[in-house]
Design brief:
homodimer, mainly alpha, 434 Repressor (Amino-terminal Domain), DNA-binding
DNA sequence: CAACGCTTGGACGACACAATCAAAAAACTT
DNA sequence: AAGTTTTTTGATTGTGTCGTCCAAGCGTTG
């Protein structure tokens, strides 16, 4: 169960990029990105496309990781999370 | 696409209960509950069991409605939400 | 229309969370 | 080990949200 922050850090280190570079692309302070990578702050959805480009991740992959992290951290303690996810999927599908 | 607030309001009105009564059980001010029902405030997960009892809703049902609302409002604009939900479900299942 | 109960709205303080900045700490390089 | 770059930490300030309180709006009933 690795977090979204660790995920980002792994990707960045694989590319040998400093926080400074990635933070610059995001137009935020390095300290914020540092905190995001250590899960002291939460990334916003607006950051995802820029992160994907900077870290050479597919848009789909980073979004999926982000969604997993948000759901588990916001709703992970609920007893019927699985049912809720299934129902949400159903309403998304029937909405196409 | 009706909201969690409308859902609560419908249930309450079906029982003919005033905000006052339900708010008392939740131990919050009526104005807050009013705002929750009009989606100006967000219910917390701690409120769900009390709401379920007060509005005669099954725990499972109210949780599922809540989950749907939270996911769609927090993540609804993401392109790969469906994939993210499927992946989250998978990791929940494999974690059993 | 006065009185009553229900509901809504806005002002206020409390509190959690976010961003900025500078300095300390850690990690590399030579 | 000194010097340089990268990363973390903490103090400060800013922003948003929550809940309380109270006043006003709305509808119904006497």
């Amino acid at each position: 169960m690795n977090s979204f922050g660790e995920y980002l850090r792994n990707k960045r280190e694989q590319l040998g990029l400093p926080l400074r570079k990635v933070a610059a692309e995001l137009d935020i302070d390095t300290s914020i990105l540092s905190k995001i990578e250590r899960n002291e702050r939460v990334a916003t959805t607006e950051m995802l496309p820029t992160l994907a480009k900077a870290l050479e991740i597919k848009d789909k992959e980073i979004e999926v990781e982000f969604i997993k992290a948000v759901i588990l951290s916001d709703l992970g303690e609920l007893r019927f999370l699985k049912n809720g996810l299934e129902e949400t999927l159903n309403s998304l599908k029937s909405r196409e």
